[in-house]
Amino acid sequence: MDETQSDQNAIDNKLTREGWQSRYESGATGWDRGKPNPALLRWLENDLQPCRILVPGCGRGHEVVELASRGFKVTALDYTKAPVQELTRKLNEQSLVPDNSARRCSSKSINGVRALC
């Protein structure tokens, strides 16, 4: 196997459910700000009103908690169980369930997601 193929295999392994689970368990989530995205906060301040909302790829769910605390009925999805378990714990601690839910989706339960922006 050449070096290029080896590099591609390493990337592919990181994109598996196990790879994502490992990232969350080890704290290798450099994209996680630890708080809601500033763009969401601006949207909430300007014109987004409480409604039913889906948050695919919710990760640790900082946006989910923010939305739920403002009266949104949130369904959050992620590919691995570690962030979903953490988010479920946060929602329970803040009494933001049962109106809101976090779920781990199987690779067979979702065929695609289209971002509308």
How would you explain this protein's 3D organization?
With 117 residues, the chain is α/β, with parallel strands linked by helices. It has a domain of 75 residues: Rossmann fold, CATH 3.40.50.150. Helices cover 44% and strands 13% of the residues. Strands 1-2-3 form a 3-stranded parallel beta sheet, covered by helices on one side. Helix 5 links the parallel strand 2 and strand 3. The longest helix has 13 residues. It starts with a helix and ends in a 13-residue tail after the last strand. The C terminus is likely disordered.
Unreliable sequence segments: 110-117
Question: What's the total count of β strands?
Answer: 3
Compressed to H and E, one letter per element, the order equals: HHHEHEHE
Q: Please identify the top-level CATH class of the domain at 30-104.
A: Alpha Beta
Percentage of residues in DSSP E strands = 5-15%
CATH superfamily of the domain at 30-104: Vaccinia Virus protein VP39
Distance between the termini: 41 Å
Radius of gyration: 16 Å
The CATH architecture of the domain at 30-104 comes to: 3-Layer(aba) Sandwich
Helical fraction equals 40-55%
Characterize the main sheet: 3 strands, parallel
Q: Assign an overall shape.
A: globular
- Structural class of the secondary elements? alpha/beta
- Adjacency order of strands in the biggest sheet: 1-2-3
| CATH fold field value of the domain at 30-104 | Rossmann fold
Please work out how many helical segments DSSP would assign. Answer: 5
Q: What is the mean predicted local confidence, pLDDT? A: 79
